[in-house]
Amino acid sequence: MTRRRQSGRPAHAARRKRTGTEWVGGCLEAPFFITDREEPYRAFLVAWVEVPGGLVVGHDVVAPEDVPGSLGRTLVASMERPLTGRPRRPARVRVASASLAREVREVVGGTLRIVVAPTPELDDLIGAMRAAMTDGDAQQSYLEGGSLSADTVGELFAATKFLYTAKPWQIATDDQVRLE
Predict the structure, then answer these.
(1) Could you report the per-residue pLDDT of 147-170, keeping only the tens digit for each?
(2) How do residues 126-144 score in pLDDT, each as one tens digit?
């Protein structure tokens, strides 16, 4: 009979493959505003980047009041359901501060090596986002830079006027909608 080693980890955690990579994580002020409230606010981007390679394996956008604990939650979600590839665990994680290291340690315990060191990869990620965003002074339009005609957009608005006026989203829930 073979002996099985007991560990404090759940059975599903043992099945996740540990890679030889490092994940760099942090919580940064996003380079955009969220306008779902009366006053626009800057959200925070929580991200985990796999190095080498610079692949973003997980991210979340959170409101300022939801920042505490978000880095750890996003790490767990990223290991279970990475944005690309199979579920996996890095060999170690790197964060920029002792407080972020404590937050990560609260959710992974001693199962991962946590290093506190600079995280320039996250600055590179924010820089790439800024570069990809359109100029804030660019005129916004429903016409998609000329790929849609004004008549087509006008027809769309006319066709959806009843739906907009009825506002069924204020009454119906997702489980009441039937798609055929």
Answers:
(1) 788 888 889 889 888 888 888 877
(2) 888 777 776 555 566 777 6
DSSP classification of residue 135: P
Pull the structure tokens for residue 137.
Answer: 């002074």
What are the domain boundaries of the chain?
12-132, 145-176
> What CA–CA distance (Å, rounded) separates 79 from 86?
9
How is residue 130 written in tokens? 């800024």
C-alpha pair distances (Å), 167 with each of 35, 67, 142, 153, 160? 20, 32, 21, 20, 11
Give the residue among 122, 150, 164, 143 at the shortest CA–CA distance from 31: 122
CATH of 12-132, one of 3.90.550.10, 2.30.40.10, 3.30.420.10, 3.40.50.11270: 3.30.420.10
